[in-house]
Specification:
Layout (H helix, E strand, L loop, with lengths): L6 E8 L7 H17 L2 E5 L14 H7 L11 H10 L2 E9 L6 E8 L5 E6 L22 E3 L4 E7 L6 H8 L5 E6 L12 H16 L2 E6 L4 H11 L11 E5 L5 E7 L4 E8 L2 H8 L34 H12 L1
Parallel strand pairs: 1-2, 2-3, 7-8, 8-9
Antiparallel strand pairs: 1-12, 3-4, 4-5, 6-7, 9-10, 10-11
Helix pairs in contact: 1-3
Amino acid sequence: MASKQTKFKVAAAHAAPVFMDKTATIKKVVRLIEQAAAEDIKLLVFPETFIPGYPQVSALVQYAEQSVVVEHNGEDMAAIQDACRRTGTSVNLGVSERMAHGHTLFNSQVTIDADGSILGVHRKLQPTYVERLVWAQGDGGTLRTWPISSLGCNLGGLACWENTMNGARQALITQNQHIHAGAWPALSTMAGFEAVADAQIEALMKAHALTAQVFVITASNYVDETCLDWMEENLGKQDLVKAGGGWSSVLHPFCAFLAGPHTGSEEKLVQAEIDLSQLKAVKVWIDAAGHYQRPEILQFGFDSRSHWADQKPGRFTARVEDREGEKEAEEK
């Protein structure tokens, strides 16, 4: 893919959602996109399930109601798509996705281009531990890189411990990934992970930066008092989650920090300028999609078919402009 520009600013949104309030968090997403645009950031990556926050298994009915239905210019997505279009900002947004006209949920990352078009949705392949009570499994049809036309690069992402799946990472490598969106929750706030969470995130994100030869934008939320207050009011006092946490950064393919890491309860756009032309110098040394692949020895394949009924071909092919044209025609 020929780059339209090689240098541009990217950022990880180190922020807390308005927990279990989809409408309010959508408004916050729009505000953060507008803030990013004001700071000349061209690509903004959000944490895992930023809308409506990381789930509590004992509140699944409410959580499903607050999850996002991803449709072009649909009720949940229209304001976010409009913000991307108005500001010329591309985003990778972590959401709890609810299948339209149903109650099946997915842990998803929605990629929206600077013209407001939804390029695609990646659904987490394997929910972890008790996450399996909340989210269904994604399939290979969403294990994709998405071409960000405004930036001339391919963006792919994985959520949380999905980054431990070497096959999933290799699938993105084979699709000529340039930038990786690593979406995480506030893992270090969870009991038992305080001492190891940040080290795990750093290790996995640096591993993918080097082995895939990509820039990595890691976005983690933090837990704020509004989240703890909601849980205490609706579920009782929580002993397994505390305030704070999060680990956000921007990494160079050779694992140098371009921004961060940033942790704790301070909202911040963790931002850096990246230069895609630097990938050439990296790939002269090591190219996982090229001379380091050795396909005659290390054979790799994955099932790229969609298996969920709503993942129909062309689900997101309609551009925003086309939808607006249809609306104008209906009004006439």
